[in-house]
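Colleagues,

For the teaching module next term, I've prepared a clean inverse folding example: a structure given as C-alpha cells, and then the sequence designed for it. I'd like students to try predicting residues themselves before seeing the answer, so please don't circulate the second half yet.
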C-alpha cells in the first residue's frame, strides 16, 4: 500500500460480520484493507488510540477472519491493543468512532463487549498461556475448533510467554501462534530475543527466503507440501531462520513471511488450519503501515491522543507532565550522584526516562529490561545489594506483576529500592486494565516500605530527592498521569521528614485529608463547607506509610467528622489506614471517605467517571454534613453549595 500523509475516500463500505467478509470477492480484499486504514486514521484522529499497532495488523486480521470461523474459533491478541481491526470485522465497524470514549468501545478486548472477544487483556505476555488453556479445554471436551494466539515480538520478552512455551511440548495440544514481528512494543524492543528476530530480518539470506515465500505457499497447497526451512542441519537452520528455539519448545516453525501479503497470509493459514500439532507462524510487519507519520514515529503513534490527519501532529502540551518532571529531575540527580540508576520495563517514553537514556553523562546507568517487570524488580534488588541506588520506574498497573518480588525480595531483605509508580489513580481512556487504583492496597501492608504521594509538582521533586537520600530500606512514590496544578519545583529540593504530614489549616467541625492530586478536591470542599459556616481543618498527608499518627489524632480530637480523599479504591486504601489507626487508638471520630468503589472502573474521560462514582467536592459535602448539625440559616443552603 502506498504511504501517504492523509487518507483517501474509502472504496468500500464497512463489513458487518465475519460472514460478510467471507462472501467478499477475493479481488476486493485489498480495497477492504485500504478502507480499514482510512477509517482508523480518520476516526482515531478525533479520539486518540493505538493507531500504529492496528495499521500493522490489517492484512493479518482480514486473513484470520477469512480463513477461520469466529467465535467458534478463538482469536487471542496479546495485550489486545491491536484489536481495533478485529472489532471492525465483528459487527463493530460503526462503533469504532467511539473507541476509548466514555460508554463507547474499549481500547482493548473485553469478553463482555462481544462474543468474538474470547479473552480480555491489557498487559503483555498473556496470550500463549491462555491459548494453551483453551486448546486443552477443547481437547477435554472433544471439540475441533481452532485456537490462534497473536503475539508481537515484544511479548517474547515477557516471562509468562516463556512459561507457556515450556508447557507446550508436554501438552502437545494443536494450536497456532502468530509471531507478529515489527521490532517494536511501545518503544524499540531490547534484549537477546529482539536481536535474534532482527538477525534474520536483516540477514542476506532473508531476502531470498522472503522472495520465495509465495512459491512456498503454492507448494504447500499441493502434494509436495513442505516447510520453508526444509530438511537442513540444525546448525544451518539456526542461521537461516529462528526456528530452533521454538522447535525445542515443541512448536513447528513456519516463516518468516510478509505480514502484509494478504493472499500469502490466507494460503498459509489455510495450510496451518489442517495441522495437528502446535505451530508458530513468523510474520514480518510494519508498525504504522500506510500512514507516513506513524511510520516515521512508531513510538509516538503506538498510542496517542487526538492528532491532525494531514501532519500527524498532536496538540502541544502547555505544562510539563509528572513523567517529564520525573525524567528531568532524576537525570539532574544522577549527574550529581553516580550511584543513581534508572530502570524501565520497555517504557522510556511513557515514564519520562528517555531524557535519562539520552543524556551523555548518565546514559550508562540507564537499563531497559524489556516487558519483564518481575525481572526488573529483581535486577533492582541486585543493584541495591551492591550499594547502587536503583529507581525502578514502572506504571502502577504494571507493578502489580512484580508483587511477589515486592514482598519476597525487596521487603523481607529491606533493600533500598526506589519504586516510582507512574499513572497512579484513574488512567481514564485506557480502562480497567490500566487504572492505577490498587497500589496503596498492595504496598501499604508490606513491612519496611515508606510510601508517598505528592500534592503537586514541587512536592513531587522534593519526594524524589528524599528517595535519592533514603538508604534505610525500600521507598515508593505514586503519581498521576498528565500534568499537575502547575507548582514550579525549587532549584534545590527539600528533604522531607519521613512520616510527617503538612497541616494546612486547623478546624473544629470538619477535618479534611486530601491525598496527592485529590488535595485540590479537598481544598474545594473546604471552601464550600466554610461558606456554609463550618470550621474546617485541612491536611496534606504526604505519606501513605507511615501515616502521621500524631497529626491525625490531633485532628480527630478537634473535629466532629473526618473526610479523606484518594484516587484509589476505598478497600485497603489510604482512608482505610486512617480508620484502622483511629480504631486502634480508641478514637471514635467518624471518618467518611471519597474514593473509588469495590469494582473495576470502566474507561472514559476522568470528569465523567468521577461524577458517576461520586468522586467530587459535592459528594464530600453531602457525606460530611450528614454527620453535622444545622448551622445558621442565614448561611448559604446545602443545596446551593453542593449544586444539588
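(Answer key — instructors only)
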Amino acid at each position: 500500500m502506498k504511504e501517504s500523509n492523509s487518507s483517501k475516500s474509502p472504496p468500500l463500505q464497512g463489513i458487518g460480520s465475519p460472514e460478510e467478509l467471507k462472501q467478499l470477492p477475493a479481488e476486493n480484499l485489498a480495497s477492504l484493507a485500504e478502507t480499514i486504514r482510512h477509517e482508523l486514521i480518520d476516526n482515531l484522529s478525533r479520539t486518540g488510540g493505538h493507531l500504529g499497532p492496528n495499521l500493522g495488523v490489517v492484512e493479518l486480521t482480514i486473513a484470520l477472519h477469512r480463513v477461520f470461523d469466529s467465535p467458534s474459533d478463538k482469536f487471542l491478541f496479546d495485550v489486545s491493543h491491536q484489536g481495533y481491526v478485529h472489532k471492525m470485522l465483528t459487527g463493530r465497524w460503526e462503533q469504532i468512532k467511539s473507541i476509548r470514549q466514555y460508554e463507547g468501545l474499549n481500547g482493548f478486548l473485553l469478553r463482555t463487549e462481544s462474543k468474538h472477544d474470547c479473552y480480555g487483556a491489557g498487559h503483555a505476555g498473556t496470550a500463549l498461556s491462555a491459548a494453551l488453556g483453551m486448546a486443552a479445554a477443547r481437547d477435554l471436551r472433544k471439540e475441533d475448533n481452532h485456537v490462534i494466539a497473536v503475539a508481537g515480538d515484544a511479548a517474547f520478552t515477557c516471562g509468562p510467554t516463556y512459561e507457556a512455551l515450556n508447557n507446550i511440548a508436554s501438552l502437545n495440544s494443536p494450536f497456532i501462534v502468530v509471531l507478529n514481528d515489527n521490532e517494536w512494543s511501545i518503544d524499540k524492543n531490547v534484549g537477546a530475543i529482539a536481536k535474534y528476530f532482527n538477525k534474520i530480518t536483516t540477514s542476506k539470506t532473508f531476502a531470498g527466503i522472503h522472495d520465495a515465500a509465495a512459491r512456498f505457499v503454492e507448494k504447500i497447497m499441493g502434494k509436495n507440501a513442505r516447510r520453508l526451512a526444509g530438511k537442513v542441519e540444525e546448525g544451518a537452520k539456526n542461521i537461516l531462520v529462528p526456528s530452533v528455539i521454538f522447535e525445542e519448545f515443541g512448536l513447528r516453525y513456519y516463516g518468516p513471511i510478509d505480514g502484509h501479503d494478504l493472499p500469502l497470509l490466507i494460503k498459509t493459514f489455510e495450510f496451518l488450519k489442517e495441522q495437528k500439532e502446535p505451530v508458530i507462524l513468523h510474520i514480518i510487519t510494519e508498525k504504522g503501515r500506510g500512514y507516513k507519520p506513524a511510520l516515521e514515529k512508531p513510538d509516538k503513534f503506538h498510542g496517542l491522543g487526538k492528532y491532525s490527519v494531514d501532519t500527524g501532529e498532536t496538540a502541544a502540551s502547555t505544562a510539563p507532565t509528572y513523567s517529564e518532571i520525573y525524567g528531568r529531575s532524576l537525570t539532574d540527580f544522577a549527574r550529581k550522584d553516580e550511584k543513581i540508576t534508572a530502570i524501565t520495563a520497555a517504557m522510556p517514553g511513557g515514564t519520562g526516562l528517555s531524557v535519562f537514556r539520552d543524556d551523555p553523562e548518565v546514559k550508562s546507568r540507564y537499563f531497559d529490561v524489556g516487558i519483564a517487570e518481575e525481572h526488573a524488580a529483581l535486577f533492582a534488588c541486585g543493584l541495591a545489594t551492591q550499594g547502587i541506588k536503583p529507581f525502578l520506574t514502572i506504571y502502577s498497573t504494571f507493578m502489580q506483576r512484580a508483587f511477589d518480588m515486592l514482598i519476597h525480595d525487596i521487603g523481607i531483605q529491606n533493600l533500598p529500592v526506589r519504586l516510582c509508580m507512574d499513572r497512579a489513580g484513574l488512567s481514564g481512556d485506557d480502562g480497567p486494565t490500566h487504572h492505577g487504583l490498587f497500589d496503596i492496597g498492595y504496598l501499604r501492608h508490606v513491612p519496611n516500605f515508606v510510601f508517598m504521594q505528592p500534592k503537586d509538582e514541587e512536592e513531587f521533586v522534593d519526594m524524589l530527592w528524599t528517595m535519592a537520600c533514603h538508604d534505610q530500606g525500600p521507598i515508593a512514590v505514586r503519581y498521576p498521569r498528565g500534568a499537575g496544578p502547575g507548582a514550579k519545583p525549587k532549584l534545590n529540593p527539600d528533604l522531607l521528614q519521613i512520616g510527617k504530614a503538612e497541616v494546612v489549616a486547623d478546624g473544629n467541625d470538619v477535618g479534611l485529608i486530601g491525598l496527592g492530586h485529590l488535595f485540590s478536591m479537598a481544598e474545594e470542599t473546604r471552601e464550600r463547607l466554610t461558606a456554609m459556616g463550618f470550621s474546617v481543618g485541612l491536611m496534606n498527608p504526604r505519606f501513605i506509610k507511615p501515616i502521621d499518627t500524631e497529626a491525625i489524632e490531633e485532628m480527630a480530637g478537634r473535629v466532629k467528622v473526618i473526610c479523606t480523599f484518594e484516587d484509589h479504591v476505598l478497600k485497603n486504601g489510604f482512608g482505610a489506614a486512617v480508620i484502622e489507626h483511629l480504631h486502634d487508638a480508641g478514637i471514635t471520630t467518624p471518618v467518611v471517605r471519597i474514593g473509588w468503589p469495590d469494582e473495576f472502573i470502566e474507561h472514559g474521560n476522568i470528569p465523567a467517571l468521577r461524577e458517576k462514582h461520586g468522586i467530587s467536592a459535592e459528594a464530600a459535602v453531602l457525606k460530611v454534613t450528614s454527620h453535622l448539625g444545622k448551622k445558621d440559616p442565614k448561611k448559604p443552603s446545602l443545596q446551593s453549595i453542593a449544586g444539588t
